[in-house]
Amino acid sequence: xxxxxxxxxxxxxxxxxxxxxxxxxxxxxxxxxxxxxxxxxxxxxxxxxxxxxxxxxxxxxxxxxxxxxxxxxxxxxxxxxxxxxxxxxxxxxxxxxxxxxxxxxxxxxxxxxxxxxxxxxxxxxxxxxxxxxxxxxxxxxxxxxxxxxxxxxxxxxxxxxxxxxxxxxxxxxxxxxxxxxxxxxxxxxxxxxxxxxxxxxxxxxxxxxxxxxxxxxxxxxxxxxxxxxxxxxxxxxxxxxxxxxxxxxxxxxxxxxxxxxxxxxxxxxxxxxxxxxxxxxxxxxxxxxxxxxxxxxxxxxxxxxxxxxxxxxxxxxxxxxxx
Length: 323
Hints:
With 323 residues, this protein is of the alpha+beta class.
């Protein structure tokens, strides 16, 4: 049954601990060799994982960005938060630990296969993607289904550019995305609870919308591993779990694809997963959100504030049923 009252989500330790003590704690954990990977939330079945090195090459300072806020005037989320508070179950379910256990993950060489119902299937090497598609800055809000959000200056390019190159056939109606499967490097993939590899999907018109990008960087620098390196999807009007990370396959298909979360819990996570404050998650309200780094909650905007650009995609649909 739906519960319309808000229930608090996990609180970031840096927001309840003085900043200096928080970062000293992080350094102590690394020095002590504390290994955390694939830890399971209370609602999930227990799992095990192997210790991995505790270092990361995440840049310490932001690169050059052209703006300090998005089009609604919201300030950019600090790089430290973006790179150290990550939903990335392939590594760990504990958001604060993901950045500490990613150093074994290899982002080169990397290729992305694009095929299915297309006239011109291609396999792109990552270096060719960076050369062939001009990267631009896109400041997008990222809204998590758990009730927190960030404002991130991405580097990337419209997904439509690749889709146009491969020439979708007339019968193609959906786009299926698949993440890399490397349990030796991604300890969370050893947890049998989830149907790895991670898979997501969009309708073709959603995928072709100019807001939908493939991101290769943020804050003017290459994408950190914990944020989905070397290439990830970003769909800013949908909840963050739709923006699949570490993409290796893009397939155009005729029928709506199965996705990770709608397969596991279809009563909680629908295929569309549009940000909709009027449709509560069965276990909490979606009416408000808390921006990481802020104390007060704010009203959630329909389509995450991108209604002018995307509402027409869902004309005539019942957004309470097609959630």
